[in-house]
């Protein structure tokens, strides 16, 4: 049980550090990417709040958040394919230098999100560790 609590805690820390659309972005391509990452953040936060007990478990809301998270993760490669930047962007140039690896990490998030069992609180708790690990792996390599 303590390991599960640590996993949930790690997931919540990662959610707090995920990309948030910043004020002042002028490049519309970068803005779309930031908006997509906001969808990831919000829905990971919804699941994480349930897993940590900050929000009551609701299977329907969990399933809704999971579906949005899976869809957003699937869209990451397409949104990042154009090599565009903006002064407030946090995307490292390594994304485009190692785009295949970046895409694989996005796929890992998509798969981890799809594997979350939203039918039970225990399923959500168990699924948040891999989701958080996927986020962290990508952010470590590709986010400033």
Q: What would the principal axes of the Cα set say about the shape? A: elongated
Which whole number gives the mean pLDDT? 89
**Number of β-strand runs:** 0
Order of helices and strands: HHHHHH
Largest sheet: none
Cα distance spanning the termini: 34 Å
SSE-based structural type: mainly alpha
Strand coverage percent:
under 5%
Could you estimate the helical fraction of the residues in percent?
Answer: over 70%
Poorly predicted residue ranges: 10-21
Give me the Rg, rounded. 15 Å
Individual helix count: 6
Task: Describe what you observe in this structure.
This protein is mostly helical. Helix content is 74%, strand content 0%. It has helices at 2-17, 28-52, 59-80, 94-97, 99-115, 121-142. Helix 1 (2-17) crosses helix 6 and helix 3 (59-80) packs antiparallel against helix 5. The radius of gyration is 15 Å and the shape is elongated. Residues 10-21 have low confidence and may be disordered.
In brief:
The protein has 6 helices and no strands. By secondary structure, it is an all-alpha fold.
Key terms:
mainly alpha
Question: How are the SSEs ordered, and which strands pair?
Answer:
Elements: H1 2-17, H2 28-52, H3 59-80, H4 94-97, H5 99-115, H6 121-142
Helix pairs in contact: 1-2, 1-6, 2-3, 2-6, 3-5, 5-6
């Amino acid at each position: 049980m303590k390991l599960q609590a640590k996993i949930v805690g790690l997931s919540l820390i990662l959610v707090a550090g995920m990309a948030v659309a910043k004020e002042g972005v002028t490049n519309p391509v970068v803005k779309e990417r930031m908006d997509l990452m906001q969808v990831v953040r919000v829905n990971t936060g919804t699941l994480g709040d349930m897993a940590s007990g900050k929000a009551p478990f609701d299977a329907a809301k969990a399933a809704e958040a999971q579906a949005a998270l899976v869809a957003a993760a699937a869209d990451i490669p397409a949104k990042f394919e154009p090599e565009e930047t903006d002064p407030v962007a946090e995307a490292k140039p390594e994304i485009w230098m190692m785009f295949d690896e970046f895409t694989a990490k996005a796929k890992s998030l998509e798969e981890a999100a799809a594997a979350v069992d939203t039918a039970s609180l225990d399923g959500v708790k168990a699924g948040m560790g891999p989701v958080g690990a996927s986020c962290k792996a990508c952010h470590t390599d590709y986010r400033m």
